[in-house]
Amino acid sequence: NRRYVHRRGPMLVLPDNKGVRAFRNIFGLDIANVNALNLLHLAPGGHVGRFLVWTQAAFEQLDKIFGTFTQASSVKKNFTLPQPMLTSTDVTRIMQSEEVRRVLKAKKLQTKKPSRFTKPTNGIKNRRLRLKLNPFTKQATNAAKGMRHKESRDSRRKSKAARLSKVKKSLKKTQKK
Asked: What is the distance between the alpha carbons of residues 26 and 10, in angstroms, rounded to a whole number?
């Protein structure tokens, strides 16, 4: 049942079905027969390391059932234990050794992922692009800001009036001559 998943508890391995009734009522304890071992029960979910309790008689029967590295099995026909492939169990040292590294291909460089940022194309909406396209825009906007203030407006009017009065005086002088 996927809704209520219980963790697997210890497992007791017996040589036969004698004594099963004594352990049947213990919650979380699974019972297995040495003649019918199941890998899914020994290592549930592919995780090696389940707590197994072996009786002495069950442990002694393992050599008869599976055989040894030198003897074939007496129960299973033509079955011998597979020879270990590695003589050294330090796999990390083997992978980092110079002999293995020489044979491996060079590491592939990952291509840079394209940026999700798109460059702005509308110079009217985007200020940075507007300044890049027309650098004079900054001066124009600063001048426009200056036009909005009351004090600067009054000072502009006074300076304009002063310039106009100068021009009028100079015109009157030239007309009198």
From this structure: 11
CB atoms within 10 A of CB 13: 21
β-pair partners for 30 = 11
Give Rg (Cα) of the chain: 46
Residue 49: left (phi > 0), alpha (psi -120 to 50), or beta?
A: left
Sequence-ordered list of residues with C-beta below 8 angstroms from that of 12, at least 6 positions apart, any chain: 23, 29, 30, 31, 32, 52, 53, 55
Strands, E, within the chain: which ranges?
11-14, 30-33, 52-54
Over the stretch 130-167, which tens digit does the pLDDT of each residue have?
A: 999 999 988 988 888 877 888 888 888 899 999 999 99
Strands 30-33 and 11-14: parallel
Total residues found in the chain within this entry: 177
The residue assigned the tokens 């002495």 is 56
Token look-up 């020994």 returns 42
**Structure token pair of residue 83:** 């020879």
DSSP at 125: T
**pLDDT value, residue 143:** 84
User: Is residue 52 helix, strand or coil?
Assistant: strand
Average pLDDT of the residues in 88-115? 87
